[in-house]
Amino acid sequence: MRHGIAIDREHPDCPEESQRYLTEKGIERTRSAALGLAQLEVKPSALLTSPYLRAVQTGEIVCEALEIDTKELRSTDALKPNADPARLAGELSKMAEEEVICFGHAPHLDDFVAYAAGASATFTSLKKAGAVCLDVESFSPLKAKIAWLLTSKALRSLGD
Question: Which residues of 101-127 are buried (b: 16+ CB within 10 A; e: fewer)?
Fold first, then answer.
């Protein structure tokens, strides 16, 4: 899941990149999108997030909607905006959990989807608070298919 709407980089009060936070609109829309995930009966057994504040906040909002303790949210540098998609694949391959939700950034998440699907170029464009579900068939070699991809608007519609 991509993080929700964050303070604009050009805003005079914008903090450093890693500390950019969700706006009120971002919080509201992310909460509504998270309720859509609940309607889809998403039940992750592990939750990973970029250490950047806006991704952590998105993860916390989703935890609340899915009735998961926010202490279950684990930060990883593999979800930082410029991380190599292979790094995330490597981390996921070592996990015993079958359903993992990741909170991160564009275009990193789109790059990971392309990498996992074996595509030669990025072919998705996750919008803020949008989500994609991958069915991973194997990690060695990495092979996955998109089960679904939903915009924030679609998730919010499900949550209403």
Answer: bbbbbbbbbbbbbbbbeeeeeeebebe
